[in-house]
Design brief:
By secondary structure, the protein is mostly beta strands. A hairpin with a 2-residue loop joins strand 1 and strand 2.
Length: 71
């Protein structure tokens, strides 16, 4: 049995950080068994993710006038 952990921290309203650790104890285990040998499972790994959201504010449209040069 392996132990996996996840933690997430909300930095502010637009940004968060997440950390995932798999096989925290770095336990050696058999992922697959075959005749006479085995495939070892994954070792400890750490993943860090930064999530940020951005809002794009559209530019206010400037008034546009078409002037007719015809009399």
């Amino acid at each position: 049995t392996t132990l996996d952990l996840m933690a997430e921290y909300q930095v502010d309203s637009r940004m968060s950080v997440k950390v995932n650790v798999t096989n925290v104890t770095d336990e050696l285990y058999a992922d697959s068994l075959y005749l006479g040998f085995y495939a070892p499972g994954a070792a400890r790994s750490v993943q860090v993710a930064l999530k940020a959201s951005f809002s794009v504010h559209p530019q206010p449209s400037s008034p546009c006038c078409f002037t007719s040069l015809m009399s």
